[in-house]
Specification:
The protein is an alpha+beta fold and about 180 residues long. The protein is built from 6 helices and 7 strands. It has one domain (about 5-180): Aminopeptidase (3-Layer(aba) Sandwich), CATH 3.40.630.30. A 7-stranded mixed β-sheet has the order 1-2-3-4-5-7-6, sandwiched between helices. The structure holds coenzyme A. The site of coenzyme A has 21 residues, from strand 4, helix 3 and helix 4.
Amino acid sequence: MSDNKIEVTVAGEGHVKFVPTILQTIEDATKVRGTGIAKRTHEYVEQKMREGKAIIALVDGEFAGFCYIESWGNKQYVANSGLIVAEKFRGHGLARKIKEKSFELSREKFPDAKLFGLTSGAAVMKINTDLGYVPVTFAELTDDEAFWRGCQGCVNYDILQRTERRYCICTAMLYDQDKHK
Ligand SMILES: CC(C)(COP(=O)(O)OP(=O)(O)OC[C@H]1O[C@@H](n2cnc3c(N)ncnc32)[C@H](O)[C@@H]1OP(=O)(O)O)[C@@H](O)C(=O)NCCC(=O)NCCS
């Protein structure tokens, strides 16, 4: 990877052509039980790109990774979601680069929001911890119904329903910008 051209940027209209590959990569990852990544529609991902709320990573022009941000509860909360790195590019620090860029974008676009993420993966927990996120209970996250509806596309959704949204496979992590000012 050191000899390859790695670009990690805010996605725009020119990246819409990568949406089918992104969705396929997410779809493949959801088949691994416990992964905890929700499926998204073409329209949703495309809209995120057009709004400047997504990060894309390309290696020599080939799709390598993606994530997006979304605001909830009257912009009081911002979630980083849908992180995916294509299998062949994993293990080279790409997820870390994407998360760092998305952290920067979230703070720039929503300077007063609390940033949060739900994750079941050790890699993401590690990256979030390094960025200053701390684990919290689900009660400390947004109560915006629309956010939680996003979990419906996850293979573990039955657990979230059974526990009345108190627990699931994912760990909630929060970065309170007020505490870092
Ligand atoms: C999780 C995922 C995004 C990681 O991508 P990646 O580019 O391989 O991750 P990185 O190389 O940036 O690794 C980041 C850190 O996590 C560690 N890490 C990576 N994979 C790990 C694993 N399976 N278990 C424990 N630690 C791991 C790395 O060592 C690295 O730590 P370091 O920088 O201190 O050495 C990728 O495996 C993926 O797309 N998985 C499927 C979808 C998914 O689970 N998305 C997350 C939903 S919350």
